[in-house]
Amino acid sequence: MDPAKLAKLQALSAANRIGGKGTVRRKIVRKTKASGAQDDKKLQGALKKLNVQPIPGVEEVNMFREDGNVLHFTAPKVHAAISANTFAIYGTGHVKELTELVPGILNQLGPDSLASLRKLAESYQAIQQGQQRQASGTADEEDDDDVPDLVENFDVDAETKVEAALD
Fold first, then answer.
1. What is the DSSP letter of 20?
2. How far does Cα 101 stand from its chain's mean position?
3. What's the pTM?
4. The domain 41-98 is classified under which CATH number: 1.10.3470.10, 2.20.70.30, 2.60.40.1120, 3.40.50.150?
5. Among candidates 98, 96, 94, which has minimal Cα distance to 125?
């Protein structure tokens, strides 16, 4: 047998050996984990405990946040227990600005919702203007904080102390 081939086979068998010298050569078997399916099973178990039922046909969900942004879900899975006033919405959510979603939202709103959307837009504008004022105000205040106000004349006080010490 060729010594080069023999050395190559010994190197391969040593790499596959788990135990010490004389043990059975076994290959290491690695199992892959399917994390997505496992998380979904846990979620389904938690939803069963809440006695929720799936609601089919929901194309999108928008949740309005206090900072004026919208949490937008496209094609979410929605489950609800209406008697317990519990809703579970899961899927991929994106934080978007209200101005991006207004054209698509307008045709879905009724007259009552349109008035509340106007109020929301006004409050959003007020928040934006307040943040701009705060940003410009903090820049002015920071400049003032760096330099202290001159209250006394330190040169005159220092001269009187020196004269008093000499007398």
1. S
2. 20
3. 0.47
4. 2.20.70.30
5. 98
Q: What are the tokens at 38?
A: 């496992």
Contacts of 64 (CB under 8 A, 6+ apart): 70, 98, 120
Structure tokens at 159: 């001269």
pLDDT, tens only, 69-81: 889 999 999 999 9
Residue 58 has what pLDDT?
92
Q: How far apart are CA 79 and CA 119, in angstroms?
A: 30
Structure tokens at 130: 């307040």
- Distance between CA atoms of residues 29 and 50, nearest Å: 39
Contact 60, 75 (CB under 8 A): yes
**Domain spans in the chain, listed from the N-terminal domain onward:** 41-98, 109-143
**What residue has token string 């190559």?**
8
Residue 45: what residue type?
Answer: G
